[in-house]
Design a protein that fits this description.
- By secondary structure, this protein is of the alpha+beta class.
- About 30% of the residues lie in helices and about 35% in strands.
- It contains three helices and five strands; from the N terminus they run βαββββαα.
- Keywords: Kinase, Transferase.
- This is CBL-interacting protein kinase 22.
- GO terms for molecular function: kinase activity.
């Protein structure tokens, strides 16, 4: 999953760390740096082991970042559940969406 944001990289990293912390004892941050975050499940998980999620941050313009969040290994079902229950609801605060107002203003009267 990828999304664009106008927030700083440090803000995105702290946001991702907060999402991992809000998951309770299920996830913990294992690596955090200027270019991304990696967190993994505390519990053993399914037959494929612990869930691991990685988020990489790329700068595409001086004020726009692209964040790529992906399953970094192991259990796909746990990743889908974590994405649906934890990540997706929290995205509304940080995802940058284009303003639809200019298109509406261009309407011919």
């Amino acid at each position: 999953m990828q999304f664009a944001t106008r927030e700083s990289a440090s803000c995105v990293i702290s946001w991702l760390e907060e999402v991992a912390a809000r998951s309770g004892d299920r996830m913990r941050v294992t690596k955090s740096g200027a270019l991304g975050v990696r967190f993994e499940g505390v519990e053993r998980g399914g037959p494929k082991g612990r869930l691991a999620v990685a988020a990489d941050i790329f700068s595409v313009a001086p004020s726009v970042l692209v964040v790529d969040i992906k399953k970094d290994g192991r259990d796909t079902l746990k990743y889908r559940s974590f994405y649906r229950d934890e990540l997706q609801p929290a995205l509304t605060d940080i995802v940058w969406a284009a303003d639809p107002a200019p298109a509406a203003a261009a309407t011919i009267v």
